[in-house]
């Protein structure tokens, strides 16, 4: 006689991280989603569109997220520093010969502005 013993239930859902945007589940790249095991096994895994969410993968995601946040913070601080520099400069004059009214002869180039700002900052 044959005896079959059940070891336990198979998980119906899997936690995955998407590697691409997937229209079928309205998921974007990098999202963590709970999908049916069959959908993962038959569609996502063979096409390389998702990986299982494991503790190692989760740790990698957190490290990457921290790196991105640090980069955003650095860029923001740099922009704020530039804003402070421009606030201290205030208004400046660009000497040009003028005609009737407020028309000037010649153009104001980006290099003209750079030179004036550098002279005001003593750099």
Question: What is the structure about, briefly put?
Answer:
This protein has about 120 residues and is mostly helical. About 45% of the residues lie in helices and about 10% in strands.
Describe the structure.
Residues 27-54 form the Ribosomal protein L9 domain. This is Large ribosomal subunit protein bL9c. Residues 58-85 form a coiled coil. The protein is mainly alpha-helical and 123 residues long. The chain has three domains: 10-53, Ribosomal protein L9, N-terminal domain (Ribosomal Protein L9, domain 1, 3-Layer(aba) Sandwich); 55-90; 91-123, no CATH class. 47% of the residues lie in helices and 11% in strands. The protein contains three helices and three strands. The protein has helices spanning 37-47, 55-89, 110-121, and strands at residues 13-18, 32-36, 50-52. It has a three-stranded antiparallel beta sheet with strand order 2-1-3, with helices on one face. The protein is rod-shaped. It starts with 12 loop residues before the first strand and ends with a helix. The mean pLDDT is 84.
Global outline: rod-shaped
Mean pLDDT: 84
Q: End-to-end span in angstroms? A: 93 Å
Structural class: mainly alpha
**CATH homologous superfamily classification of the largest domain:** Ribosomal protein L9, N-terminal domain
Question: Any idea of the CATH topology of the largest domain?
Answer: Ribosomal Protein L9, domain 1
Which residues form runs of ≥5 with pLDDT under 50? Answer: none
Strand order of the largest sheet: 2-1-3
